[in-house]
TrEMBL record:
Domain Stress-response A/B barrel, chain residue ranges per copy: 10-104
SUPFAM superfamilies from the UniProt entry: Dimeric alpha+beta barrel (SSF54909)
Organism, as annotated: Camelina sativa (False flax)
Classification lineage: Eukaryota, Viridiplantae, Streptophyta, Embryophyta, Tracheophyta
Descriptive protein name: Stress-response A/B barrel domain-containing protein HS1-like
Subunit description: Homodimer.
Gene behind this protein: LOC104782017
Length: 111
């Protein structure tokens, strides 16, 4: 039963606020580097990103969101430990003022 709980799509979500001194060009370069991880790290199945467009002003300073998809919790763990990810994450996190990461399994609600 535990193995079944670990299988199925897992979303890896990162909320970010870049440091004030990071240029728009550098942010674009970092986003392209993040997006390219899907081509370099096999367990990473998909990547999407966006900027906050909410009118609610509840973002708590976070300006960007990055979402990756994986086939299991083990696949996320493999991605996190992958040397290419470790190298990129060190550079990426150095450009951030705030970061929040959540992994979750999308769940439907039956009505």
């Amino acid at each position: 039963m535990e193995e079944a709980k670990n299988k199925g799509t897992v979303k890896h979500v990162l909320l970010a606020k870049f440091k004030d001194g990071v240029s728009p060009e550098k942010i674009e370069e970092l986003i392209k580097g993040y997006a390219n991880l899907v081509n370099l790290i096999e367990p990473m199945k998909a990547f999407h990103w966006g900027e906050d467009v909410s009118i609610e002003n509840l973002h708590q300073g976070y300006t960007h969101i990055f979402e990756s998809a994986f086939d299991s919790k083990e696949a996320v763990a493999e991605y996190v430990a992958h040397p290419v990810h470790v190298e990129f994450a060190t550079m990426f996190l150095g450009s951030l003022d705030k970061v929040l990461v959540i992994d979750y399994k999308p769940t439907s609600v039956s009505l």
